[in-house]
Design brief:
globular; mainly beta; 4-stranded antiparallel sheet; 1 helix; 6-stranded mixed sheet; 113 residues
């Protein structure tokens, strides 16, 4: 049963910004580390960023310095702020707890050049 729902994707020009949200209908996010992942067309899903329960963050080298992951436990929500977007960031973005459970539908991010 999928409890996490991603939102906030869209079409943006290179250099633009988007903020993704990962909402939880239960309490999974509150008690687990959470990661953002993405799958570009024709490629495997890859890890983007993680935030622990205590707020410690880690990022893939390709997004470090441009993306920021954060969590609001009171709202059962995890965010991914994406700045200085590049066409190679185009992908479907997913969130999941660590270790991963069932995947949600994701949210499409498209960056035009």
């Amino acid at each position: 049963q999928v409890q996490l729902v991603e939102s906030g994707g869209g079409l943006v020009q290179a250099g633009g910004s988007l903020r993704l949200s990962c909402a939880d209908s239960g309490t999974l996010l509150t008690h687990n580390a959470v990661g953002w992942y993405r799958r570009a067309p024709g490629k495997s899903r890859e890890w983007v960023a993680t935030v622990t329960v205590r707020g410690i963050t880690d990022y893939a080298r390709s997004v470090k310095g441009r993306f920021t992951i954060s969590r609001d436990n009171a709202k059962n929500t995890v965010y991914l702020q994406m700045n200085s977007l590049k066409p190679e960031d185009t992908a479907v973005y997913y969130c999941n707890v660590v270790p991963a459970r069932a995947w949600g539908p994701g949210t499409q991010v498209t960056v035009s050049s």
